[in-house]
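S.,

Sequence below, as promised.
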Amino acid sequence: MFNTVSGRKREDAATSGVPSGRSPLSRRARGAVAAIVACASLVGCASSSDVVATGKPNTYAVAASATGGRLAWARAHEQAMNQARDYCERRGMQTSVTMETVSGVQTMTEHGSSMNFECHPKF
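The prediction came back faster than expected:
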């Protein structure tokens, strides 16, 4: 079909592989890509401090923080727990959390978890 405005011959939908008037990505696919990008930007990451000894015997402290999304506190808690667990397991012991303090409640702010824990022999 000939386009009188541009003076070009319009490709037939059967020969181009793309339906006329549509881009290669459908609206649904573009929406899915946009949603994935938005979710990925909210995921954020978590980081933690080194485990340090406290004044009590066999009692240690670790802190972790995370940003992005409503559940950043959960990622901070998990990161701190993993650090504590790894620390005790390297010594052939198990972890017992004695105190945890969490901070940050608003979306898109830094959330934190500070915990004290002890390492006990495995039973």
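The chain has two domains: 13-43, 46-121.

Coffee later?
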